[in-house]
């Protein structure tokens, strides 16, 4: 390609400081180095994790930064040593990677790659500790190895899932984070048997994806738990049979036995404590990153589930705006309106 090996100038939404509106800037994107890939992002969605690190209330502030990690794009060029991707391939970037060589990647149980597992504080590439983004020669930091709020971005090959080129990127882009996280939390981690009762705490996009997984697993009762009663109507589309607002009850809702799965990025200072008897009383607590999916190995098959109409992603996409209106997407999420807003990069 004509741009291979050259610096590309393009538009990106830069977060200059915590909580301040993003600014559309012209950035320079360097060519990919060894084991890296430069990707032309076509569609990017806003995930709550982006908002969380933009607010930087409970996290290490890293600015100026290009956020974004839920997206779909096409390979523009590849760096030295990259053999499984070529220009033109359709890819989903993922915030946690799969090197395929470490003990985690070789195990069937874990997707926490030693080399490429999520690192929310690192703002540079792991190869040389440098950023691939600059504005007038000054570095702009990366975010979770993806930085998809840019028309072009550079990503380690291990954080890219090559997918079916006939899959519509404006739809399947939401599978690169939230939807797969929730779906996998149910199907791969909780593993409810047919006829089980499943309760979902928090009915945002990830919670509703977990609900979709419960429906696919054949749960007989699916209880949605949220502080916002307006969420019930929407949750019915995802299989919710009962709704509970904790504010309406004086006793704790979580009494009972079973498996609890923790999903999401906690506050830096967050801790919880419990009595060991809770575990002796047949309770199990598990956690998951990205629904225990290995990005390169498993994500292409999640896309195929959508292509076979076994998984509906359209109902998660409630808004669509041009990339230039990215702050509108932030406003929608801050107000709790809708589930996913997909941004079109070419407008």
UniProtKB/TrEMBL annotation:
<comment type="similarity">
    <text>Belongs to the zinc-containing alcohol dehydrogenase family. Class-IV subfamily.</text>
</comment>
<keyword id="KW-0479">Metal-binding</keyword>
<keyword id="KW-0862">Zinc</keyword>
<dbReference type="InterPro" id="IPR013149">
    <property type="entry name" value="ADH-like_C"/>
</dbReference>
<dbReference type="InterPro" id="IPR011032">
    <property type="entry name" value="GroES-like_sf"/>
</dbReference>
<dbReference type="GO" id="GO:0005829">
    <property type="term" value="C:cytosol"/>
</dbReference>
<dbReference type="InterPro" id="IPR013154">
    <property type="entry name" value="ADH-like_N"/>
</dbReference>
<dbReference type="Pfam" id="PF08240">
    <property type="entry name" value="ADH_N"/>
</dbReference>
<keyword id="KW-0520">NAD</keyword>
<protein>
    <recommendedName>
        <fullName>Alcohol dehydrogenase</fullName>
    </recommendedName>
</protein>
<comment type="subunit">
    <text>Homodimer.</text>
</comment>
<dbReference type="GO" id="GO:0008270">
    <property type="term" value="F:zinc ion binding"/>
</dbReference>
<dbReference type="Pfam" id="PF00107">
    <property type="entry name" value="ADH_zinc_N"/>
</dbReference>
<dbReference type="GO" id="GO:0046294">
    <property type="term" value="P:formaldehyde catabolic process"/>
</dbReference>
<dbReference type="InterPro" id="IPR036291">
    <property type="entry name" value="NAD(P)-bd_dom_sf"/>
</dbReference>
<dbReference type="GO" id="GO:0004022">
    <property type="term" value="F:alcohol dehydrogenase (NAD+) activity"/>
</dbReference>
<feature type="domain" description="Alcohol dehydrogenase-like N-terminal">
    <location>
        <begin position="35"/>
        <end position="163"/>
    </location>
</feature>
<dbReference type="GO" id="GO:0051903">
    <property type="term" value="F:S-(hydroxymethyl)glutathione dehydrogenase [NAD(P)+] activity"/>
</dbReference>
<keyword id="KW-0560">Oxidoreductase</keyword>
<dbReference type="InterPro" id="IPR002328">
    <property type="entry name" value="ADH_Zn_CS"/>
</dbReference>
<feature type="domain" description="Alcohol dehydrogenase-like C-terminal">
    <location>
        <begin position="205"/>
        <end position="248"/>
    </location>
</feature>
